[in-house]
Amino acid sequence: MIEVVDVTKRYGQHLALDRVSFKVDKGEILGFLGPNGAGKSTTMNIIAGYLPLTEGTVTVDGLDVLDDAAEVRRKIGYLPEVPPLYGDMTVDEYYRFVSRIKFVPRNERKSNIDEVMERVQITNVRKRLIRNLSKGYRQRVGLGAAMIGNPEVLILDEPTVGLDPKQIIEIRNLIKELGKTHTVILSSHILPEVSAVCERIVIINQGRIVASDTPENLSARLGGGKDLVIRVPGQAQPALDILAGITDITDVEVSGEREPDTVDLIIKSERDIRRDVFSAFARAELPILTMKPNDLTLEEIFIQVTSQEGIGNASSLS
Ligand code: ADP
Ligand code: MG
Question: How many angstroms separate the alpha carbon of residue 236 from the centre of ligand 2?
Fold first, then answer.
């Protein structure tokens, strides 16, 4: 649906995007994650057709954002980082204004506006001035404005910034809901945001894509994939003695008690040792209560791929 190919953007001398490439499939909710200043808003502005790129191409549904700008804009609903809301308008007036500038046919405007208001749940405040609305409601108004004209794609730039935890959950659920009928790109500099909502994550750092995958695959690939966490009853020592008899274990770390009278152990190895671990504990008649891969949390991945050293060979992840 969206293809970003080798996009470079310079602001004067400053290289904001350096050969950025990624794809978004139809119907997908893509999380665009990166620290402040990474280039998220720049990328989204370019895809939405609000900012020219320096080099590269962006196509939306096969249409070039530069050559077919007007058509591309009709396909995209864009919620910028700072939505252009007019405080002195009522929600109704604002949506009529947005319908006009988006060239929604006159006879479809009313039903389109009513439908959008229902969808983002702001019908009850439609007669109120935007400046008198809470931040949470204003954000819904912005989200709804992006949806006017039924665009297939929604581009949402940090839609939950400045909201309280309850409003964040509401907006998140709303975005998940919208994801069922739209292709969505959602940017954020905070991880729980994208991991809660998105099927795939693209991580950008200093203008470069450093990772792109499902949350699960990202953890597996970066975590090595073969390390295990097991939970056993009692103390660590008997378990450590059993593990000492298994070849190819490079390290065991006691990660402590997460559940009363049990201990968690992180077992490192280059090969899949699950069967050996199972058999050894069975022979010793010490039950394994849980065994799971020691995946990195998304938090850890984010830190890894956005740290200065990076992960050595970051490009192989994209
Ligand atoms: P993000 O949205 O990930 O926080 P931005 O896309 O806003 O990042 O910015 C990426 C980089 O480009 C930053 O270093 C920022 O300072 C710079 N930048 C953004 N907009 C402009 C501009 N209009 N002029 C000059 N530099 C800019
Ligand atoms: Mg930004």
Answer: 47
pLDDT, one tens digit for every residue, the chain (318 residues): 999 999 999 999 999 999 999 999 999 999 999 988 999 999 999 999 989 999 999 999 999 999 998 899 889 999 998 888 888 999 999 999 999 999 999 999 999 999 999 989 999 999 999 999 998 899 999 999 999 999 999 999 999 888 888 888 888 998 999 999 999 999 998 777 788 889 899 999 999 999 898 877 776 665 555 789 999 999 999 999 999 999 999 999 998 888 899 999 999 888 889 999 999 999 999 999 999 887 666 667 777 777 754 444 444 343
What global pTM score does this model have? 0.77
Nearest-atom index, ligand 1, CA of 12: 25
Q: How far is the CA of 17 from the centre of ligand 1 (A)?
A: 9
Query: SS3 string of the chain?
Result: CEEEEEEEEEECCEEEEEEEEEEECCCCEEEEECCCCCCHHHHHHHHCCCCCCCEEEEEECCEECCCCHHHHHHHEEEECCCCCCCCCCEHHHHHHHHHHHCCCCHHHHHHHHHHHHHHCCCHHHCCCEHHHCCHHHHHHHHHHHHHCCCCCEEEEECCCCCCCHHHHHHHHHHHHHHHCCCEEEEEECCHHHHHHHCCEEEEEECCEEEEEECHHHHHHHHCCCCCEEEEEECCHHHHHHHHCCCCCEEEEEEEECCCCCEEEEEEEECCCCHHHHHHHHHHCCCCCCEEEECCCCHHHHHHHHHCCCCCCCHHHHC
Instruction: Report the atom number in ligand 1 closest to the C-alpha of 158.
Output: 2
Minimum CA distance residue for ligand 1 atom 10: 39
C-alpha 9 to ligand 2 mean position (Å)? 15
CB of 39 sitting under 6 A from ligand 1? yes
